[in-house]
Structure prediction request, 401 residues.
Amino acid sequence: MSDFLVDNKGFFGRYGGAYVPEILYKCVHELQDAYLPIIESKEFRDEYHQLLRDYVGRPSPLYEARRMSSKYGCRLFLKREDLNHTGAHKINNTIGQILLARRMGKTRITAETGAGQHGVATATVCALMGMQCEVFMGQTDVQRQHTNVERMRMLGATVHPVTTGNMTLSDACSEAIRDWCSHPADTYYLVGSTMGPHPYPDIVARMQSVISEEIKWQLLEKTGRDYPDYLVACVGGGSNAAGTIYHYVDDDRVKIVLAEAGGHGTDTAYTAATIHCGTEGIIHGARTLVMQTDDGQIKEAFTISAGLDYPGIGPMHANMADKGREQVLAVNDDEAIYAGYELTRMEGIIPAIESAHAVAALGKMHFKPQDVVVLTVSGRGDKDVETYLNNKPMAKEYGNF
Ligand SMILES: *Cc1c(COP(=O)(O)O)cnc(C)c1O
Prediction:
């Protein structure tokens, strides 16, 4: 058994578990009992893979980025999750969970969203399946991410602005869980990342594992071997990273480098770098690393990237970072912006600002010319064009326009 995947009690090493209030105990256990037989069934797998192919547009290409390769002195391949329907990896997970919900007899979906990307991916699959969709979103984010709110409403979802706490993702999670508590019989809570109580981190990692499943055969086709020397991804809650590494966690030939959001810097109060700055605690039903005060109050996360703006981290990554299996680099806002411009100008790919954090990690790494590097571009940057333009890099090669 792997030291890095979930154990039979719902833990990743010392992290994970299901720390839920009494009232949710039954819902969580119902899901724990139901999920594996369903998602391992042939019927489920057939329908899931058919939708990934015909609806999402998978497999996503593995593209050898030649100009960036020569700049960094390695063979760099980009795993293009930005080309999926709705523009990011999140749809891999929502497609899988909506099929799970349907097989459990649920008719109503509830979800939280920060930037709105998970909300849009959830509203999309609810429209596809004709299911009722309730999305909880902090009032601050409703204002910051207005286009995504309009998209969700157009798709038929009800968006509930949350006005408690900081009115951001963390508060939206709490409200979605509260909604689940009050409609336990007909409602499925559709979590957007590898976080929350067991079995969610495991469910989401399995749904995203299609990314590394494809990397294996695509690399074999392109390089003659099915593993890279390095895997690189950004990490918010940790789902695109989990999918990128899933089939390689026990393969010591593969080094794993993740980029978390440093914000203004890990030595400031304006950061979302949970693995660097967090301490052990409980957030949204899981034991993991959390950015918190000495008396356990959860701190607000800060980063230019709405999708990485979470004061926790999935328990799978807390464990892997602890055990030294993952190297985690903090990438600051300005470094991510610069890297976003670099990928745009060198390869003609505008990455999501989240993904640009992974690109920036390349500049902090050292390669040999024969090294094969696979970097997951988790999403496209259409949603971030305004942010990129309002924060032009100081460097003269990209700043003068
Ligand atoms: C939501 C999001 C992320 C962060 O979520 P993870 O669960 O850590 O993958 C990263 N990139 C994009 C494009 C996103 O939309």
In short: Residues 88, 90, 117, 193, 234-241, 307-308, 352, 354-355, 378-379 surround pyridoxal-5'-phosphate (CB under 6 Å). The chain has a mean pLDDT of 96.
